[in-house]
Amino acid sequence: MDAVQQRQEASLVEQLRKGDPAAFETLVRTYMPMMLRVARRFMKSEEDARDAVQDAFVSAFRSIGSFHSNASLSTWLHRIVVNACLMRLRSQRRRPEEDIEAYLPRFREDGHHAQPVENWTETAETILERSELAEIVRAAIDRLPDTHREVLLLRDIEELSTDEAAQALGVTPNAVKVRLHRARQALRALLDPYMRPATT
Amino acid sequence: MKCADAITTFLADYLDGTLPPEVRADFEHHLDVCASCVAYLRTYRETIAMAAAARTELGDVPEELVQIVLAVRGR
């Protein structure tokens, strides 16, 4: 953020603290696109994503007084919408989640891979060019057990640090590391059949 | 080092660059002799890159939602 943007943001925060309705509208119109994108990644339905964004703005309106200008509004609102999504997901969790073990790599008793591992023909670059592959990846992420999916979203997609993800989830940094590795392994296993060379 | 240890215990720390030097050397020696672990490491890295590449970036912002949020603020 350059000096001009910093001054504009400081002025907006000042107006928000004074309760200026125009400032609230500026805040909503400026940051809703980012917040809705984040919510759409976390929530499995559009309705839930919109509800989470609404929760997030209500929370932001209430706590604008405690906003510290050493963070950017964008970073602050990102954390708020992530927390709103996590709370909503937690409240929706009813069934015991699926065991991730089924998606983890298998090894023989001597410690070698149970099956030879093949390279993939598809890459992250081809994902950007082929929308059906992007859809396969998103569907595979949604198949992960919730506690693992959330860690993967926070670390690999929203790019929170291990400590930040641990704080958001209320778990230890080590639990985040363990879950992230297992989530990546499970996602790798789910993608494997689609990314390998086609067999003839 | 066995494949099971390399993949289950050390892979994530290897990618984070946090393995102690002697363990890192053992891990890399294992990669020199194990094509399956090399392929696993490559596809694991690709998985992380694909998750980031596939993240939802598109989608409109419904004016209706803007109005709902502003109405909540006005209450």
Mean pLDDT of chain A: 90
Number of helices of chain B: 4
**What is the H/E order of chain A?**
HHHHHHHHH
Can you tell me the residue ranges of chain B where pLDDT is under 50 for at least 5 consecutive residues? none
What does the radius of gyration of chain A come to? 20 Å
User: Helix and strand succession of chain B?
Assistant: HHHH
Sheet of most strands of chain A: none
The geometry of chain A reads as elongated
Structural class of chain B: mainly alpha
Helix content of chain B: over 70%
Most extensive interface: pair and counts? Answer: A-B, 54 and 39 residues
Q: What is the overall shape of chain B?
A: elongated
Q: Can you count the helices of chain A? A: 9
Strand content of chain A: under 5%
Structural class category of chain A:
mainly alpha
**Total number of strands of chain B:** 0
Mean pLDDT of chain B: 91
* Poorly predicted runs of chain A: none
Task: Characterize the structure shown.
- The complex is a heterodimer of chains A (200) and B (75).
- With 200 residues, chain A is an all-alpha fold.
- In chain A, 68% of the residues lie in helices and 0% in strands.
- Chain A has nine helices and no strands.
- Chain A is elongated, with a radius of gyration of 20 Å.
- The mean pLDDT of chain A is 90.
- Chain B is mostly helical.
- Chain B is built from four helices and no strands.
- The model of chain B has no long low-confidence stretch (mean pLDDT 91).
- Classes of the chains: A mainly alpha (200), B mainly alpha (75).
- The interface between A and B is large, with 54 and 39 residues.
